[in-house]
Design brief:
The protein is about 35% helix and about 15% strand. The chain is an alpha/beta fold. The structure holds pyridoxal-5'-phosphate (PLP). Pyridoxal-5'-phosphate binds near residues 95, 158, 160, 287 and 319. Keywords: Aminotransferase, Pyridoxal phosphate, Transferase. Pfam families: Aminotran_3.
Length: about 500
């Protein structure tokens, strides 16, 4: 189905001036030179070129999760361009993993710098042969934005192995405490090789339900998850949406909500699988879980509970970290009385890894280890990202653009209650909203795409927004205007 050019929508976008950082940004002044004024859609999505490539790929691998093929050369700033020349405002940004949008000139300069090219060509086994200057690179990038109290950092390749290695470090910390610091015995050494106690333990990590770490059938059915999700115990997770639903509109105190978690913790700790770590995202959700955002007082309450002392707190900031909430670390919004024990990251940070407090540093070598343990070329890019975020004040921008998004979404939820539920939620640009049914969510997602917006579905009826850090208020206007058109189109069907 050929689609009409959606540029006409932009005639309806009010011409506005935005006051930001004491300078005026018109809707055409983008932080990335050459960014177009709006989307343009010429074919159905996926278009014929994408469909042909999907068929080619499908001969080699199962490819049905692909939405379309992308022309990364033409994609720029907040706009992704597909293989059929359709240009979409990207508020999903590669599953939330683009810090500075597409083809940011400062990142191009990093790659073009001859001094940096060595790092792109020679990927080291970082645990054994780091390049000279590696400690300074980590200090200038990851440690310069570390959460308070976190002086230790380990790099990893992706979010999953960042969490897995934080689990490993937690288990080691716990067992070391149990042994009272005594050396590992011969029996422990030999029994772990045949997966028997005492070397292998029945230790467990507890996570909330509906976080990325909770068991999720699409990823796990038929698969024996032995290590990556070590016997996760799931607790029902109190959400901001629950607050919004409650008749009183009064948020429950975090300690009251956390009581349920503690009961579960205590009950399970008396069983053979002892819980040694608790893990949750700062804004806990799992993509299929529907972007469930916890309330700040829940996190504050976590710190007050006595069982905190016998377990480690791992905050998974793989998706929430990197600045979209207006702070590098979402949990910084929650003013925890003490730092979390571990904070894991990936996505917008360009490298995976985890921070930890000094107490959790493993006492033996080759424990937190794999071949690559990250990639120094990504650290070069991250170093630049950190500079650009500071120079262009992008954390403030995330707050400013986020306010615009949230105000607009709340307004639409009031004016289109038949479509959008009254549970719009978000911090900075890290926002989500629910449609009134799964079918309507799917339809909204497709219609947004056809009108030039790439959003991200999650849960049964949620759309999540994960723009990159160069998303400005005028992009929010474009998004909201297209969303409103889509809501009207749905209404008229
Ligand atoms: C909160 C969270 N943790 C961990 C992961 C896993 O990261 P990766 O896909 O890089 O392995 C994700 C992925 O979306 C996530 O959202």
């Amino acid at each position: 189905m050929a689609l009409t050019n959606t540029l006409r929508i932009f005639k309806n976008v009010k011409k506005l001036n935005y006051s930001f950082n004491s300078c005026i940004i018109s809707r055409h002044l983008s932080l990335v030179p050459g960014e177009p004024p709006g989307p343009s859609v010429r074919t159905s999505i996926p278009g014929p070129n994408s469909k042909k490539m999907m068929a080619d790929l499908d001969k080699i691998q199962y490819a049905n999760a692909i939405w379309y093929f992308t022309d990364y050369k033409k994609s720029i700033g907040n706009y992704i361009v597909d293989a059929d020349g359709n240009r979409l405002l990207d508020v999903f940004s590669q599953i939330s993993s683009l810090p500075l949008g597409y083809n940011h000139p400062d990142l191009h300069r990093v790659v073009q710098d001859p001094d940096n090219q060595i790092a792109f060509i020679n990927r080291p086994a970082l645990g054994i042969f780091p390049s000279q200057g590696w400690p300074e690179k980590l200090t200038n990038s990851l440690l310069s934005i570390a959460p308070k109290g976190h002086t230790q950092v380990n790099t990893m390749a992706c979010g999953s192995c960042s969490n897995e290695n934080a689990f490993k470090a937690t288990f080691m910390w716990y067992r070391n405490k149990q042994r009272g610091g005594a050396p590992i015995t011969e029996e422990e050494n030999s029994s772990c090789l045949i997966n028997r106690e005492p070397g292998s333990t029945p230790l467990t990590i507890m996570s909330f339900k509906d976080t990325w770490l909770s068991n999720h059938n699409a990823f796990e059915i038929d698969i024996q998850i032995r290590f990556s999700r070590p016997g996760l115990a799931n607790c029902q997770f109190p959400t901001v949406q629950d607050h919004l639903k409650s008749s009183t509109r009064e948020p429950k105190r975090g300690s009251q909500m956390f009581g349920e978690v503690e009961e579960e913790f205590l009950e399970r700790s008396t069983k053979p699988g002892i819980i040694c770590g608790r893990c949750w995202s700062a804004s806990p959700f799992k993509p299929q879980g529907g972007d469930n955002h916890a309330s700040p007082d829940l996190f504050q309450a976590v710190e007050e509970y006595p069982t905190k002392k016998v377990s480690a707190l791992i905050i998974d900031e793989v998706q929430t970290g990197g600045g979209a909430t207006g702070k590098y670390w979402c949990h910084e919004h929650f003013h925890l009385p003490e730092p979390a024990d571990f904070v894991t990251f990936s996505k917008k940070m360009l490298t995976g890894g985890f921070y930890s407090l000094p107490e959790f540093r493993p006492q033996q070598g080759l424990k937190i280890f794999n071949t690559w343990m990250g990639d120094p070329s990504k650290i070069l890019l991250l170093e630049k990202v950190v500079q650009v975020v500071k120079r262009d004040n992008l954390l403030n921008l995330a707050q400013e653009s986020g306010r615009k998004l949230m105000d607009g979404l709340k307004d639409l939820s009031k004016r289109y209650p038949q479509h959008i539920k009254n549970n719009v939620r978000g911090i900075g640009t890290f926002c989500a909203f629910d449609l009134s049914s799964s079918q309507k969510r799917d339809e909204t997602f497709v219609r947004l795409q056809q009108n030039g917006v790439q959003s991200g579905p999650c849960g049964d009826q949620t759309l999540r927004l994960r723009p990159s850090l160069i998303f400005q208020p005028h992009h929010a206007d474009i998004f909201l205007s297209i969303l409103e058109k889509v809501l009207n189109d749905i209404k008229s069907v």
